[in-house]
Amino acid sequence: MLQKKKIDVDVIKDVLEAMLAARPDSTFIKSLSHQYEERGGLSKKQLEGLYQKALKVESIPDGKLATLEAVIMKKPTRYKSAPPPPKPLYSKDEHVGQMIEGILAKYPQHKRVLFFQVKYNNNETLTPPEITELEKFNRMLSK
CA-CA distances (angstroms) from residue 32 to 46, 74, 85, 105? Predict the structure, then answer.
């Protein structure tokens, strides 16, 4: 036995067609109709605009307007969030700063550590081998 395919009721399309019949000169409604045909849907803001215009037309049944309103309420509201605050390009590693201070407290003339301190104070990143070398100096002093 063959089953008939149910044709879905498209309230948005019906409202758009009724609006085009009532206001054939409206470029807004023409634009919405074209977008609906091309993309297959409208945004929440576009649907709200259509609803506000449709309220003024008496020939559109109240049931279609109520359904259109339900479709609008069902769609999620998208909010534009504020962009995140800019973060600095370089953030000092406090652990490295403490190691430099600790070594220089015991050996203030250590040339290699003084070089690291200058780099650290100028907001230059220490390379991983330099950090390893600094950790090695720190371990030797803590023994």
Answer: 7, 19, 37, 73
